[in-house]
Predict the structure.
Amino acid sequence: MKLKRIAIFALALVFSFTSTVVLAGNLVIKGSTTVLPIAQKVAEAYMKQNPDVKISISGGGSGNGIKALIDGSTDIADSSRFIKPKEVSLAVEKGAYPVPFAVAYDCIVPVVHPSNSLINLTMDQLKAIYKGENKNWKELGGPDRPIVVISRDTSSGTYEVWHKIVMKKERVFPGALLQASNGAIAQAVSKNKNAIGYISLGYLDKNIKALMVDQITGSEETTLNGTYPVSRPLYMFTSGWPEGDTLNFINFVLNPEKGQKYVRDARYVPLY
């Protein structure tokens, strides 16, 4: 319910300003690789309807997106986590006032190589693996093979959520291999039969195997009803209340008949 209240609040605010006049120009969007597929699909549709608007999109992680918003090098920062208090303070010091808009929901899914016989891990087991306490899959009922732990780097919003919910703010052990994006983790796991990683729902494919967590499958249904334990909203941040093309793009993203259709196309969970 907390996630839904965030989204409904953002929607109520945005749609109360839909009379803003369109100002054609260019938009820059930077940040989360989790939100990237949503931004790309929505931007493509938006530019077809508004051919006089050009949108530039790049990834780099939630932290880098928020940094770009603070230094004024992006109009919209994609983030798979909420902005940190220290980031808000830095933004205000520089005259930027970040405004959050929940644009979708997501869950973070542990993934292994398809040859791994495991189908479920508990939250405690995941934490132990990422602390380096479990070193062989047979300790968890899997094959007699060493565990290769793959994690995201610290600029990632996905890492932040995993660190908070799964790790309970304890550190991932130094032997973990770090990757810079969801796609990079998916690729690394698909090529290593000993590996485990964690990715967003939208990056699942046939080359990797998703595990249940506490016997619950990560899905649209379990994300929305709150039963899947590693779920979260996804955000787009603007500097101050958006105007012109930025406002119209945010409205487009949140519109149930427009941008929200592309959230599902990107294999994420729409707000409704």
Q: What stands out?
A: The radius of gyration is 19 Å. The chain has a mean pLDDT of 91.
